[in-house]
Specification:
Blueprint: H1 3-12, E1 19-23, H2 28-39, E2 43-48, H3 51-63, E3 68-72, H4 78-91, E4 98-101, H5 116-144, E5 148-151
Parallel strand pairs: 1-2, 1-4, 2-3, 4-5
Helix pairs in contact: 4-5
Length: 157
Amino acid sequence: MAETEMGCREQRWSLKGMTALVTGGTRGIGFAIVEELAGFGARVYTCSRNEKELNERIKEWEIKGFNVRGSVCDLSSQDDRQKLIGSVTSAFEGKLNILVNNAATITLRKSLDYTLEDYSFMMNTNFKSPYHLCQLAHPLLKASGNGNIVFISSVAD
């Protein structure tokens, strides 16, 4: 990033000292959100089902000087969501300023071709997960004194 761009960014606003959890932060909109938050100085934690992709992105962010950590997490799993919040709690000393519920999944096929497992996976990832993460993150958001929740959605959900 050019020095003048960085100077302009710092003049607009800063997220230094803030913490953020962005689900699905290794691609697409989630990736852009992680980059933007980290670029403004926030410490960011993200997750992905794909360990190889997660490790590649974390290396990229380290090279850019961003403070981003992450872990593998299947958000359709209640146990994985609880482990994720446990990791975030440890990483951010029990405080979280920003929760971005971004991760989602879609299986494209005709309605009659969906299996019950397909439906359960999509509902657990796209609907149960954000709701449950808000519940789990509530104590951390409250402890920060400045908690914010962002939901990313799509017409595909």
